[in-house]
Known about the structure:
- The protein is of the alpha+beta class.
- The protein is 48% helix and 15% strand.
- It is built from 18 helices and twelve strands.
- A six-stranded antiparallel beta sheet has the order 3-2-1-6-5-4, sandwiched between helices. It has a six-stranded antiparallel beta sheet with strand order 9-8-7-12-11-10, sandwiched between helices.
Amino acid sequence: MTSKSEDTVKNLKEKVRQLASENRRLKSFIGIDKSLGLERDIDRLLPLVMTKISEFLDAERSTLFLVDWERMSLWTKFAQGLGKETINIKLKMGLVGLSVITGETVNLPNAYEDPRFNSDIDELTGFRTESILIVPVYNRQSEIIGAVELLNKNTGLFTKEDQEVSERIVSKFIDDGLTEKVNKQNAAELIHEIRQFTSCARGSFFILNRQNGSLHTIVSEGLKGREISLSINLGVAGLVAITGEWLNIQDVYADSRFDRSTDEKTGYRTRCILCVPIKNHSGEILGVLETINKKNGTFSNSDMEALKTLTANIAIHIENATLFSEQNRQFKSILKVMAASIDAKDPLTAGHSENVTKYAIGIATELGFGETERDVLCIAALLHDYGKIGVDDIILKKPARLTPQEYDIVKNHVRITKNILNKMSLSRKYRTVSLVASCHHELMDGSGYPDGITADDIPFMSKILTVADVFEALTADRHYRKAHTSEQAFEELEKYAGIKYDSNIIRALKSFWGKNQTSDSGFEDPFRYS
Length: 530
Ligand SMILES: [Fe+2]
């Protein structure tokens, strides 16, 4: 044998060894995916995620830190070696803070050689950190919510691959467990991933509607955005939804269970199908995942195993999303009732908070605000006057102008609003609600209340509330005067444009008002954004 062919054999052996190792790693990764996908309890899921990451990457310890932006601190949600004890550290200290502030992954062979490393936790726990890998954790709104820290790789140093794997596990499971929301976009991403994995031509994700016995597509590739509904009594997907058993049909036109009507409608020719039910924790069928036309041949057992693993995750997404939207609806209806109960203190202000909310959301939409910002504004607008609960009805309903003392009492409603909203346990995305709501009587020239702050210090969302609030108040009857027309109200606002009120906001309200006055549909429902 020549030395050249010896080299070739050696290279091949090395390649086989590498492939076997990659295969083992992939299998182990799918195993993690599967075991985590089945865990639905957040308190059990987080330690499991952390333990699995440590095991998979062969790290000695792993810690999940969550960030508290208000207090600018990090606290441990789960830390191996700390038991139930939690640690709080200042955000600006150490490498974890660095990762959270910059959004960068930190990967160092020796932590003590880096001046930014904070050894306080080592001192507290008696542990000696050597190599360190820190990955920031993002939620679905791409906001950083914390970081995962892995310490001391047992076999050598943390590699680039370790970094990528931990980023993937972290983003997938930790956020899923903390803030769950499934939407068309991530369903589409999922279908794309499945298509790549099984190398098939098309993939569809159906949700089962038990009330009318149909399957409805959330995502179906190849239908160009069209959505289809199938009767559960028809075809392969229907059969899988009824029986809960997967089906792998290699030649569908030779199989009587296949329903050709969709092919006839779309002009597409289905050859083979792999269809798997999506079941929840208690075995209830939530939907069906269907992949069509394997590119090179038919679907294999490993395609099926992969699909089964993924459907376990999808089931969690669907259940959590359902729960999330139910809770969201409940939450919003409670806020609406709270707002209405304040407005009901006086018949002349009935509907005030809801109208202010409509105008504020109208302005925000004209100005191109995103969904999260509109959501914050919606809650701040609904509850902006909630502090009036602490103001005597006699003053609120007084049929004449108020005395300076009475006016001071009324003014205090914004402080009460702030105190009440601060006591509400709102989720992180609503952390600015109390500030926004409590500044709705501040004016750009500093002549407002309670603090008399000026333009630069007033949150922009509060400036929107101010304009919406003044416009609503001017166009409604009051005990001491009749309602202004919308033209008079705009004139009044424009008199102080750029002085007390933001000119762009007035323009946006005018544009919104113009569009809605001519439309038959009336004002948009502010809750449609949430
Ligand atoms: Fe107010």
